[in-house]
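Lab notes, practical 5.
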Amino acid sequence: RGLLVFTAPPPLQSLPETMRGWDAALRGRGRLIVFTEDNETRRVCREHNIPIVCVEHSDERLPRVDKMFDSMHNAQPDGVVGFVNSDIVVEDFDPMVQFIHLLNSDSGIFSNLEQRIPYDLYQPFVSSGHTNPDWFAVTSRKDVSKTGQISGHTQGGYDFWCWNSRPGGPRLLPGEIVIPPFRFPYAMYDNWILDMSIQSALRNTIDATAVLTLLHHEHTRVSESASWVDALAGGVNGVFINRFLGYKESLSSTGLGLNSASIKNSNNSHSDNSNIRILGKHYWKLGTPLECPYVVTCNSSLSTVQNSLGFALESRRYWSNVPQETVETEQCVREAIPTFVSISNHSNCARYNTILQETLKQEALMSHLPFEIHGWGHQSRFVKAAAATWRYTLGEQLKAHATQDKFVLLVGVGFELKAQLMNFICSLNRVGMSNHYVIAALDHPMYRWGVLQGLPMFLPSFVPMTINSVIDTSGYGGKFSIQRTKFKSRAVLEVLNAGYSVIWSDVDIAWFVHPFDALKPFMNPKSGLAIQSNAPYVASQDKLEKTSAEIKLRLAYLDAAKSIHMVENKFEKATAISTQITELQAQLHSLPPWSPIRPHETVQAVVTDSIAAVRRLNSGLYVAPNTPLVRAAFIEIVAHTNTNTTSMSERNDFDDVLCGRSPSTRSNSSCTYRPKLAQFRRTRNPALQVHLLNRFLFPSGAVLVGESDQNAFVLGKDRFQAATGFPLMAAHNNWIKGSGMKEKRCKAAGWWFIDDRLTCKFVSEKDDNDESRDRFSATSVPATTSSLAAAGTPAAVSNTSRIRKEQENASMNAQRASER
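Output from the prediction step:
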C-alpha cells in the first residue's frame, strides 16, 4: 500500500537536483521509479539505487504515454501510483503524503465523496446519488523565469498527478477509453487524459494544486521550440501526431462517439443502473485542473490531529475551464439540463461557442496525416510542415536506424499481423535489440496504425492502392495475403538499392540472441548470402537410419572377413563369424518400423531431408549483404515472383533462382548462385555462395528432436539445446497453419510477451530467476560461419564418420567463403 511515483527524464549523464529531491522526499514512504530505455540513464539510476522500468518508446525515442499508464497500473495493485515531470522542483512533499492518507483512510474526512457527473460545459455538475472511493488528483505548478520571477502556470497543464489503486478496482480510465499512443512529453496527452477522466466520472477528479508547491524553471523544450505551436509550425512530427491523436483519433481510440457513449461503471460501490454519458472526444481548452468537480483548499481553522494543515475539499458547482464566477457573469448557465453530454451552439455564451468553433478549427488543421494528402484539396500549414519533415519514409528510417556499417533488420507485415509484430518487437527488446530494425508496411492500414503507434515504419513504393485502404479479413491464403507475401523480396530490394544491407526476419521467429550477434559472421560483403533451411529433420528417423547403416556396415565387414577365412580354410573362424552375422541380421530385422511424423496437426507428415534439398530454402530468415551479386539475385527473385502467381510463399522463388535454375547449382548443404543478368556477361565466373544456416541453431518448426520428435516450441529452449548439442539462436514458428494457431503455440511455449493491450512484458533487471529471462538470456555465439552454417545432424547424436565428414565439408566451404 505504498506510494510509487514514476518519472520519465530525457537521457541522463548525472542525476539532476530535481530528481534527487523527489527521491529523497519519497524514501521511507514509497519509491521514485524511472521510465527509460537509455543505457546511460540506467547506469545513473543504479548508482543512486533508483528502480527503472522499461517501456515502449516511439520511433523518436520518446516514451509512449499509453504504455506508461499500463505499466503504472500493473506496478501498483494496492496503494497509490503517481507521476511527476522530471524537471519539477518540490519544496515540501509532506502535505501531499498527509492529503493522500486522508483520501485513502476508510474513516477519513474524505472517504465518502459523492461522485459528481458533468452533463454539459458551463452547467452544474449532477449528483450521481452514490459515493465513490476512487479518485484522481492533479497538481499544477508555478513557473520560474530565467530572471527568477515566479508566476502561476496558466497554460492548463499539470505536472504531478496520482490516483489510488485497490484490488478489484478500476483502471485510471474506463476500459472503453483507450489512451492513444501519445509521445511523452509532447503536449496534448495530459489535457486529454484529465478531460476523459472528468467526462467519464469513473473517479472523483480533484484539483490538488493547493496541496503542493511545485516549481518549474524555464528551459528549452524537448522539441527545442519556444512553444508547442512553434513546434507544430516547424514540422516536429511527434508534436503533430499528438495533436492529431487528441483531436482526430479520440473517437476511434476511445471506441466512443459523440453523444452515443454509455459507460457502465465498474466501481462496486456504484448503483447497478448508473450509466454515465460522455462525449468521448476532446475539446479545445478542456482538460485543465479548473474543471475538476472537487478542489482542495487549506484553512488552518480546520486543523486536527489527522489533518494538521486544515485541508478541505470544496465542490465546484460548474463544469468549467474558467473560474466559477466567470460562468455566471458571462451568462453561460442554462436552466434546462440535457439528458446527455452535448456541446452544441449556445447563442447566449460566447465562451461556449468559441470552444466549439476553435475545436472545429483544430480538427480542420489536423485534417489528415501527411501521407494521406492524395486527393485532398486544402492542406493546413501544420500538415504541410509535418509532411516536409516526415520521418516515416524509407530514406529517413534507414538513416535513423541502420548501423554504422549500414546493416538493418527488416520485417514486413500487413495489418492483420499487428499482434505478432508487437510480440516480435518485444522479443527483440528482451534480447537487447531496441534499435536497428525497420518495418515495411505491406498495406495502408498497417502503415497508418504503425505511424500512430510510433513504430519505425515505412510504406514501400510498390504497395498498390488496391490493398491500401481496406483491412484484409481474408486471412492466410487470401488474395491480399498472397500478394503481400510477394512484396517481401521487393521491400528488401528497395533497401538494397538505397545502399543498405539487410537481415530479413519474419515476425513469427522467436529470437533468443541478439540477431546481429547470432548472424555476425555473415554480416560482411565476402560472406555471400546466408538463409534458413526449411528442410525437416526427424531425430527418430535419423537415429534409426544410423543404427541400420552401422549394422549394415558391420555386416559387410564380417562377410568379407568370412570369405577370406573360407579361402584360407580357416573354417572354425569362418563359423564363428557366421554366428556374428546371424546375430546382426536378427538385430537388423528387429529394428522397429518408422513412419513420417507431423510437426503439427495442421500440416502433413515429414521425413528428414538434406538442408539444401529442392524447395528447402526458407525466405523467412536470411542475411543479404549489399553487393552487386546480392542485388542481382534479388532483381531475379522479384522478377520470378511476378511470374509465379500460384505459390503462396516466396520460398520457391528463392530456391529456383539461387539453387535450381541453370547456371546456379546445388549441393546437399549449400548452393551457388550465378546471375543471368546481362550486366554480368563479361564478368569471369560470377558466383555468390548461398549458405544454409545450421538448422539446430536456427530451426524451423519441422526440426523434430528428442525422444518424442518435437520442435523447439514444444520442447523449450533448454531441452531443445540438450537434444541437439547446439545453442538455440532463433526458432521459426512455421510448419503450422493459421495465425491463431501460431499465437497459441507461441503462448504455450512461454514466448508470447504482450498482453491484450499489446503492451510488452520487459525483463526486469532484478528478475534474474524469471523463466522467460532464462529462455532469452544471452547465449555464447559462435565466432565463425563454420558452426553457423550447414549442420545437418545434431552434434549430440552424430555418430557416424559419414555424417561427420558431411558436416565438416559444409562448414569448411562456408568458412572459406567468409575468408575470401
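Observations recorded by the TA: The CA atoms of residues 241 and 435 lie 21 Å apart. The two ends are 64 Å apart (CA to CA).
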